[in-house]
Amino acid sequence: MKKSGYEYKEYIPNTKSGWNQKMLNIKIKHIARVIKDINADIIALQEVESKTVLKRLNLTLGNKKYPYMYSDFINKGVDNVLLSRYPIKSHKAYRVNGRFRPIHKVMVDIKGLHVSLFLNHWPSYKHGVKKRMKFAKKLENLYSKEKNYILLGDFNSPLHVDKNGWGKAIHYVMKDNINLWYDFVNAQRYSHTFYKSKNALDHIIISKTINYKEGSFKVFKPKYLLNKYKQPKRWLISKNGRGKHLGLGYSDHFAIVATFSTKSYKKNKPLHVKIKRLLQTHKTRVNYVVDDVMVVDKNKYGVTIEDKNRDKIYIYNPYSELVLGKIYSLHVKELATYKGKKEIVLVEQN
Question: Which domains does the chain have, with CATH numbers?
Answer without folding.
Answer: 9-261 (3.60.10.10), 271-349 (2.40.50.140)
